Amino acid sequence: MKAESKKILKIALSFALAGVFVFFAFRGIDWASFAQDIRQTRWIWVLAFCVVSVGALIFRMLRWQALLRPLHSGADAAESGSGGSAAGAADGADGKVSALRVWDANNVGNIVNVVIPGSGEFVRCGYMTGGRASYDKVLGTVVTERICDVLAIVLLMAIAILCGSEQMKQFFRTNIAGAAAGQLSLLWVLAGVLLLLAAGIWALWHFRERNAFCGKIADKLKGFAGGMTSFVRMRKKWLFIIYTIGIWTMYVLMSYSIIKAMPELSHLGAADALFLCAIGNFASVIPVPGGIGAYHYLVALSLSGIYGVSWETGLLNATLNHELHAILILLLGAVSYVSLTLQSRKAAKKAM
């Protein structure tokens, strides 16, 4: 009951924070001007947005599948044994990972992330656990993905600023670099937490043979580390790089498509799409459901602050980008949930 209360409180706080961002994003908006911008939208570019959105999800599926394959290799088999779900064992029996199952797990995880930020990662790991891949190892591959994505966002931002206008550079210095500098004390706190975490991991590993609890946690951490290093054991490491480039190329094209869909912004180019893509992805670190409100506020602030467009135009750009992607995620997630349910029932019948 106590755990359930904490879960409810976490969800409530997430939605409350989202509500604050929505309030500031939509406060004082001229709805007549907002509706006028919608009527002028070029819907062929909206269709292009939907196509490249699916492309981004496909590249994400391929990248995760590539990371999961080493976990089903003979080397991992000796460590993990043959336990796990029937569906998972079916995927990993011949050392292969079902592309359909990875696709479905990703899509269902995306739906859960819309409601509870970050929790979808744990859900999708559950669907891919089984056979030779333990849960902690699968979770390690997700952490590897997230680290790679953070580096990609930083790289995108750097490229956009180097190739962008003086207004863009000034906006970055004032609103992002300046804000980060003001949070120096927070960075010291984070550094302290990481140091304590490292000390705790060392202690668990040091006492793993003397204490049963430490030994059990150490085994989990070992599996987790094995998942994080699955990239090292990949036979074709260049595929991981290609898939990552493909993911972020699709994201930039998504931003570019919505820019071109709006006549007021159609004069903007690739560097602007890069910058808006990076800015929008910063909203993903704010713990609100699906980035609601936070994404809208950051993108509208960037467009009005750098390019001098109206707040309504910036907000429409953010709304089209965010809501169209959310609808696509919900539709694909619903289909994938049905698919996973049918797969589980089929595997259960075979096991009987």
Describe the overall structure.
- The protein has 352 residues and is an all-alpha fold.
- Helix content is 79%, strand content 0%.
- The chain has helices spanning 2-26, 31-39, 43-68, 74-80, 86-92, 99-115, 119-127, 135-163, 166-182, 184-206, 212-228, 237-261, 270-282, 294-307, 311-351.
- The longest helix has 41 residues, at 311-351.
- 37% of the residues are buried.
- Residues 75-94 have low confidence and may be disordered.
SSE blueprint:
Elements: H1 2-26, H2 31-39, H3 43-68, H4 74-80, H5 86-92, H6 99-115, H7 119-127, H8 135-163, H9 166-182, H10 184-206, H11 212-228, H12 237-261, H13 270-282, H14 294-307, H15 311-351
Helix pairs in contact: 1-14, 2-15, 3-6, 3-8, 3-12, 3-15, 6-7, 6-15, 7-8, 8-11, 8-13, 9-14, 10-11, 12-13, 13-14, 14-15
Q: In one word, what is the shape?
A: globular
Please give the alpha-carbon distance between the first and last residues: 35 Å
Helix content: over 70%
Please work out how many helical segments DSSP would assign.
15
Largest sheet: none
- Which regions are unreliable across 5 or more consecutive residues at pLDDT < 50? 75-94
Instruction: Please trace the helix and strand order, writing H or E for each element.
Output: HHHHHHHHHHHHHHH
Average pLDDT rating:
76
Total number of beta strands: 0
Strand content: under 5%
Radius of gyration: 22 Å
Pairing-aware structural class of the strands and helices? mainly alpha
Could you write a compact summary of the structure shown?
This protein is 79% helix and 0% strand. It is built from 15 helices and no strands. The protein has helices spanning 2-26, 31-39, 43-68, 74-80, 86-92, 99-115, 119-127, 135-163, 166-182, 184-206, 212-228, 237-261, 270-282, 294-307, 311-351.
